Amino acid sequence: MTTTAEIISIGDELLYGQTLDTNAHWISHKLDEYNIKVFQRTTIGDDADQILNAFATAAERVDIVLITGGLGPTKDDLTKSLLAEYFGVGMVRHEEVLRDITLLFAKASREVTALNAQQADLPANCQKITNPVGTAPGMWFYENNTVFVAMPGVPYEMKSIMTQGILPKLHEMFSKGVLHHHIIKTIGITESSLSDLIEDWEVNLPNHIKLAYLPTKGQVKLRMTGSGDNLNTLKQEIDALKMAIMPKIAKYVYGFGTDSLEGVIGQLLNNNNLTLATAESCTGGYLAHMITSVPGSSRYFKGSVIAYSNEVKITQLGVSTEDLKQQGAVSEEVAKAMAEGVRKELNADIAIATTGIAGPDGGTAEKPVGTVWIAYSDKHKTLAKKFNFSRDRTFIVHWSALAALNMIRLNVGVK
Description:
Radius of gyration: 28 Å
Distance between the termini: 46 Å
Number of helices: 16
Helix content: 40-55%
Strand content: 25-35%
Shape: elongated
Structural class: alpha/beta
Low-confidence stretches: none
Strand order of the largest sheet: 2-1-3-8-7-6
CATH superfamily of the largest domain: MoaB/Mog-like domain
CATH class of the largest domain: Alpha Beta
CATH architecture of the largest domain: 3-Layer(aba) Sandwich
Number of strands: 17
Number of domains: 3
Mean pLDDT: 94
CATH topology of the largest domain: Molybdenum Cofactor Biosythetic Enzyme, Chain A
Largest sheet: 6 strands, mixed
């Protein structure tokens, strides 16, 4: 039977959008490593009735309730007192916690006030979990076969308590088998088309291995998740399934796990001893930024010409004024000329060029916003492809850069 958990994040600032709830994301990731399934994540404000209702509701549906926020010393911090009310217990002062607070304040040359000292008062039925980096300790409750854990909302305090005090206890109490994820990253194919392509393979997956489609930013990730008793056995099963489907999807697969497209391209260029240059119009340097975000990119990246104006296209890249006049800046001819020009100008082995209409203005019936030409050039050939992207300017720029990187992959790495 799967162990389930709910994460309850408390604080008006989370609902107002003033603070991003990174805690829930981090906790979910950690619980996944322990094969504990997050059933729900709940965010609520500093309202006593809503908090008590959230405690009661969560206790009915999960094995573990993890609470962050509301443990400070001020009047808007309600979590501790409401946990005592929920369990029907009083508060007990923990002298050990008070000593920890006193020592922490002494290091900062501060005195412990009566308000600060109240943080040593904890619900009578809880087990104190030491906070090595803050004043509010964590609290562990086990009532009616459900674990409740309360932690500060400050991320570095929560992570310290969770790592040192909570996860080991959860592992000891709920260790039930292992979970293994494997991610295949694809580009150049839509989610629906990918689903159609691998349908036969997907429907024959064993029951203990699930497949999820995770589309994001012009890419689709396939996540295989296996559950069982032995990690090595799971890994071998999933590797075999991956090898079985790869012949069908290989031309779309650029990496696995934590691979990034720009990182894979860098490795590809390094392995083939190739240098790269870019000429960018509509992407405005974003493509070069992605390339140079990879450590060691100076080994293969020569540089970029940001040819945003026609004048720069002509003077720096040798684009024909006649092509610009007859075909327009967003055209196959101009994209090819930009790629060839920057390759020669920067003495690179290969080059990529982007020119398009990122909007929101500048589109026509013939060339609407989102029309982008991307060209690839090496010593053997120069080719270009037209794309029609939609949505907003930021999306068009980002997807254009991804398409440009993928064009390098298709011409250098895919055989």
